[in-house]
Write a structure and sequence with these properties.
Largest sheet of chain B: 5 strands, antiparallel
Number of domains of chain B: 1
Strand content of chain A: 15-25%
Order of helices and strands of chain A: HHEEE
Shape of chain B: rod-shaped
Strand order of the largest sheet of chain A: 1-2-3
Shape of chain A: rod-shaped
Order of helices and strands of chain B: HEEEEEEEE
Largest interface: A-B, 38 and 37 residues
Radius of gyration of chain B: 31 Å
Radius of gyration of chain A: 34 Å
Number of helices of chain B: 1
Number of strands of chain B: 8
Helix content of chain A: 55-70%
Strand order of the largest sheet of chain B: 1-2-3-4-5
Largest sheet of chain A: 3 strands, antiparallel
Oligomer: heterodimer
Distance between the termini of chain B: 109 Å
Structural class of chain A: alpha+beta
Amino acid sequence: MNAPASRSSAVCRGRGTGARRQHGFLMVEAASALGLLALLVVGLYAGIQVNERMLQHFVAQREALDVLENVVERAAAEAPLSTARCRELLADELAQSPLAGRPSVQATCDVPAGGGIRCTIRNRERLLAEIRMGSHEN
Amino acid sequence: MRTERRSHVTRRYMELQEVLAGLCLTAIVSGMALELAGRTWRYCREAMAWAHTAQETVHLRTAWRNFVHDCPAQPTLGANGELLAGAWRAAVVPEGVALYRAGSTRLLPLPEGMTARIGREGQPGEVERWALALEWKARNSGEGRRGSARLVACRGEVCR
């Protein structure tokens, strides 16, 4: 009488162990999926962040180009122009531009080897825009 | 019998756990996907708006410079903030910047959200400058990002 009962409970226990194992596998799969998804999302976020930084850089480049365009226009009206006067014009235009509020933006005017005047605008040593005036290059 | 019932309860409990884990995972994934899609969409729109504005600014600069350079007389600033040079006139109208030449009018449309203002700059003794100041707000920008540009044109005349 006892034998069939004990067999049935053993079968039940066997089924229970299998189900528990299956459940454990499912949980591990869920945790792995979550981890992989987290990695994927972090990668995508980083990509978007880089793109946004690049957009900001391009906007700053456009603003720097606007500044240099205005300097060239004023320099053409005042020609001939000294380096010191060019520096004044550049500083004045930079002060009136959207780049004025950024302490990391620096504008310089110097005389390059080929002659003329070179104006550059940099943001943390990264070149935003550069222009050469009055030099003739072959 | 009791063992079978316990096993059945345990199995149901485990199934419930699996369903809950699946639901949580789906909710997290959906949330992240929506957030990423929204952010990417906003970024793309902003980048497109910036590119369009930059292009329009270049057109405006060229047209504004040509107009100021070609003025038949020395320009003066009118009471309504418009540029007057003999029969020529430049004014900011709701549709954009209107350049009136003798017998013809050219309208430079401004991009959506952009405003313009004509100004005269320069201290006495300096070269007179005519500036078209542009300001705009990035469309659909939650951070309220703004942009501005000054388009300077000079004729070489000295301020008095």
